[in-house]
Amino acid sequence: MSGGHLLVTGFGPFPGMPANPSGVLARRLGGMPRLKALTGGRLRVRVLTTAYAAIPTELEPALAAGPAAILMIGVATRARHVRVEARARNRASRLFPDASGRIAGTLALDPEGPAERRSPVAAPALPALRRNGVAAIRSQEAGRYLCNAAYYRALATGLPVLFLHIPPVPRKPRPVGQGRRQNRADACLPMACCAVARLLLLRARLRAPGPAA
Beta-carbon neighbour count of residue 49 at 10 Å? Predict the structure, then answer.
């Protein structure tokens, strides 16, 4: 990989989710030899505090550090499949407090920003996940919480960025057949994320300027 690094982000706990699997997956990806080899060792992981204050204090410095591409992971409490988020919207919810107890101050994330920002990597990422054993679906709704807010900010960089929403860890045992399928999907997810990272890095190389004459 020429120039920059791959930034992988997840989230920490928030109300109703005391153990956030997105942070666990992000850290796991950070230790994968396959992903380290893919990035030439230029790999950084950041597990963000699930709070609005983390956008300027944690995400902004990570973006300023010069990544070439960004893979973002969050948990969707009601999801049953991995969701490939095609866009982030310029909106927040004033109904749900973050991990610090704060509620978004305004309904717009950026009063001067566009209504939405889209990721061109969403379309090719969907078959890449499916080829690697993950039953992923396309989503047009990243929510109105920190996942959407972080995604909206990251897409503003113009870098190759993609957000994946993963299901929560089941609290109750699943039926025998369904449990086996879920275990297989969970086992495939890290390798599938590597395939998505490869797409992001390919986009980063295509957009990088060539050497000066």
Answer: 19
